[in-house]
Design a protein that fits this description.
The protein is of the alpha/beta class. The chain is built from 11 helices and 8 strands. The N and C termini lie far apart (48 Å).
Length: 284
């Protein structure tokens, strides 16, 4: 089995590690615009060789793991190089703009739009983790436009990686993911910004921070390049989510300002239902 990885950071590097764990004798080619990242991936046997226009012709899969705003151009470029039985799969966190950009490509049937719900706040090949994709949810979009035998091959791969597949419309994907992923990253970045600015006044403020603060701002350590690209690409859905979030923040702020203790308690109690939802308990 031969696979190519474009972007050997956290997601691409981890995919390579998981792929090799199930295909022991696989050949993995890689490419990264950051020469140091690529060399690290070679030195640490994440990938075997540099991906080229020549060797990509014999690949079973080509995985594209780059910032979402350049995914369409990268996919289009490599669709021109790959062989007729290679499937190109992207791992981007937005789907609608990518699907639209590839909709009329003559090799559209060799592309599969996917979004594995996996990752950490870290970036680069040093952050690659074996088992990152195990038991993760993988959302795939417009799979009916992917050639049936190539789609079947991809589904077999995902199954071996123990990924749970959800088929979703790209518009629906982007709207939902804005609330459950992109909004939380904005919130984390802005909380970190607020505290960093306060640090100018209180030099020892981080000495007071506990595990709650650390877990809440963890996502602010994520790659600015990756997340700036995602925020811009999913702008309309994210702005809608932010407006609702800001309204809720202002409401809680007003209850605190006016010392509406009973209303504040009731509101927090209602929100506390999230514990049951996240535990898999259905709310009537």
């Amino acid at each position: 089995m031969k696979i190519g990885i474009i972007g050997v950071g956290l997601m691409g590097g981890s995919f390579a590690l998981d792929f090799r764990s199930i295909y022991k004798n696989s050949k993995i080619y890689g490419f990264d615009v950051d020469i140091k990242n690529f060399q690290y991936s070679i030195d640490n046997k994440i990938v075997d060789e540099l991906l080229s226009e020549t060797n990509c012709k014999d690949l079973d899969f080509l995985i594209v793991s780059v910032p979402v705003h350049i995914i369409p151009d990268v996919v289009k470029k490599y669709l021109d190089f790959v062989g007729s039985n290679t499937l190109v799969i992207d791992l981007g966190s937005t789907k609608n703009s990518i699907c639209n950009a590839l909709n009329d490509h003559p090799k559209r049937d060799q592309f599969l739009a996917s979004h594995p719900i996996a990752g950490t706040e870290n970036s680069g090949p040093k952050s690659a983790i074996k088992g990152l994709y195990t038991n993760s949810i993988n959302i795939i979009c417009e799979s009916d436009k992917t050639r049936s035998e190539l789609l079947e091959r991809a589904l077999k791969l995902f199954k071996k990686l123990r990924m749970k597949i959800i088929n979703m419309d790209p518009l629906e994907h982007d709207k939902n993911i804005a609330y459950v992923s992109h909004l939380s990253h904005v919130s984390s970045f802005m909380l970190a910004k607020t505290v960093l600015e306060k640090k100018l006044v209180r030099k020892n403020i981080f000495d007071l921070a506990g595990s709650g603060f650390e877990s809440t701002v963890r996502l602010a350590k994520s790659s600015p390049e990756t997340w700036g690209s995602i925020f811009n690409d999913n702008k309309s859905n994210l702005v809608e989510a932010l407006n609702e979030y800001i309204d809720n923040l202002n409401y809680i702020k007003s209850l605190i300002e006016k010392s509406k203790s009973d209303l504040l308690f009731d509101e927090l109690s209602k929100i506390n239902l999230i514990r049951k939802i996240l535990s898999g308990i259905k709310i009537k």
